[in-house]
Amino acid sequence: MTDRAKPRLLWFDANRVFAAMGVVLIHSTTDFGGLPFAQSDQSERVIPVFLRSLGEFSGSEMFFMFSLFLMAMRVDKKMPEYGTVIGQQAKRLLVPFVFWAVFYAFFRLIKADAFGYAPEIWSQITNTSNWAGYLILGSSQYHMHFLPTLFALFLFYPVMRVATRYPIFGFGLLVTLGVMNNAQAFVWGLDLDVALRDYVIRALKVFGYVGYGLAAFAIYGLWKDGIPRGESRLVRRVAFYLAGLAYVSTVPFYAVAHDTGAWGFRDGWDFYGHFLMPVCIFFVFLGGQFLQWSSRWSILAQFSFGVYLVHPLIIDLFDVFLFKTGLSQMMFPWMIVVARYGVALPGSFALAYGISRVSSLAWTIGLGPAPWERVKLKTGAGV
After folding, report:
1. Which of 14, 155, 321, 367 could be a cystine partner for 362, CB 3.0 to 4.6 Å?
2. pTM
3. Comparing C-alpha atoms, which of 153, 188, 141 is closest to residue 309?
4. Residue 358 CA: distances (Å) to CA of 99, 104, 353, 368
C-alpha cells in the first residue's frame, strides 16, 4: 500500500462503535430520574459525573457526523437526483422512526409502573396533541430526536456538498453553532407556548447542525483526496490535543453537576467544547486510518445504529430490576453506573444482533428491507 492509498474504512467503523459506546455510557451515568444523582452526597457524584464527561467524548452528535459522512460518500459516487435521495432517506429513516416512536411511547409504561408514575404517562399517551411531538420531534423517548433531525439535515445536503470540493467551508460549523446558541437562548427567554417553543428550538437546532454536514463533507473531501501516512500522524496528534482542549473547556459544566446534582446550561466555551468534540474525535480516527485496525470493528459497526435505538430499552429494564429487588438501595451511585453500563452495552449489541437475525424486524434497525419491500422482491413487483 502506498502512502497515498486509501485504506479500508475500518478506522471509520471503529469510530462508529466508539460513538455507540459513548452514547450508552452517557445514558448510564444518571439516577433513575435522569439527573446526576441529585439525592446523593457530592462525594458520591464524582465518579458518575466523571464517567459522563468521558462518554461525551463521543455522543449523539457523532452519530450525525458519521451519518453525514456516509451521505457525502453516497452522493459523490452516484450523483442521484435530489428527490431520489430524499425519498430513499425517508424510507430508511422515517419508517423505522415511526415504529420506534410508537414503541417507546408505550414502553415507558413499564418503568413508570415500577416507579409509580404510570398515570402521568397514560395521560400523556391518551392526549392526542402529544402524538404530534412523538411523531415529528421524537419526544416519546429522550434519544428519538436523532432520526427526524437527521432526516431534516439530509434536506440540506446540496448546501453541504460545497465542502467536499472546498473543505474550508467545514469551518462553517463554528458559525452555525454560534448562531444556534444565540438564537435558542433568545427563544427560551420568550413567553411562547411550550409546544410551539419546542418546534422553534428544533428548527434552530437543524439549521445549526447543518454545520456538522459541512464538517463531515469537508472531512470526506480530505479523505477522498488522500492524506499521506506521515501527515495522518500529524493530524492525529493535533486532533488529540484539540479533543483534550475541548474536554477541559467542558469541566465547568460538570463541576456544576457535581456541586448541585443538576445539569446546568452550556454557554461560552462549555458550549463550544461540547459541540466541537465530535469533529475532534473524527479527526483522531481519520488520523489513525493507517493503523492496523481489526476487521471486527466493521462487524460491530453494522449494529451501531441498532445499539443507539435499543439501549434505552435495556437501561430501563435494568433500572426496574435494581429498583424492584431493592439492590439500588444497597449500591453507591458509581456501582449503579458501572453495573448499568456493564449490562446495557453488551445487552444492546446482543439485542441489535438478535433483531438483525429476524428478517421481519431487521429493517427497524436499518439492516434489511421493510416487510412490504420483501414482498415486492419475492413477487418481482416493480422489476
Report:
1. 367
2. 0.92
3. 141
4. 16, 20, 9, 10
**Residues 354 and 68: beta-carbon distance below 8 Å:** no
Separation between Cα atoms, residue 154 and residue 159, nearest integer Å: 10
Return d(Cα 275, Cα 269) in angstroms, integer: 10
Q: How many residues would you count in the chain?
A: 383
Query: Cell 459541512, residue?
Result: 214
232 near 4, Cβ under 8 Å?
Answer: no
Distance CA 260, CA 257 (A): 5
Instruction: Give every CB contact of residue 46 below 8 A, 6+ residues apart in sequence.
Output: 258, 334
d(CA 220, CA 213): 10
- Tell me the C-alpha distance between 161 and 75, whole Å: 9
What is the Cα Rg of the chain in Å?
21
One digit per residue, the tens of pLDDT, for the chain of length 383 reads: 444 445 578 999 999 999 999 999 999 999 999 999 999 999 999 999 999 999 988 888 999 999 999 999 989 877 778 998 899 899 899 999 999 999 999 999 999 999 999 999 999 999 999 999 999 999 999 999 999 999 999 999 999 999 999 999 999 999 999 999 999 999 999 999 998 999 999 999 999 999 999 999 999 999 999 999 999 999 999 999 999 999 999 999 999 999 999 998 888 899 999 999 999 999 999 999 999 999 999 999 999 999 999 999 999 999 999 999 999 999 999 999 999 999 999 999 999 999 999 988 999 998 877 776 665 556 554 43
- State the CB neighbour count (10 A cutoff) for residue 77: 9
Cβ 330 vs Cβ 324: under 8 Å: no
Residue 69's Cα: distance from chain center in Å?
14
CB 15 within 8 A of CB 57: no
Q: What are phi and psi of 136, to 5 degrees?
A: -115, -45
Scanning the chain, the segments in alpha helix (DSSP H) are 10-26, 42-55, 60-78, 82-89, 95-115, 118-126, 128-132, 146-154, 157-160, 162-165, 172-188, 194-225, 229-260, 269-287, 296-301, 304-325, 333-356, 371-379
- Alpha-carbon distance values, 341 to 25, 51, 55, 318 (Å): 6, 10, 11, 10
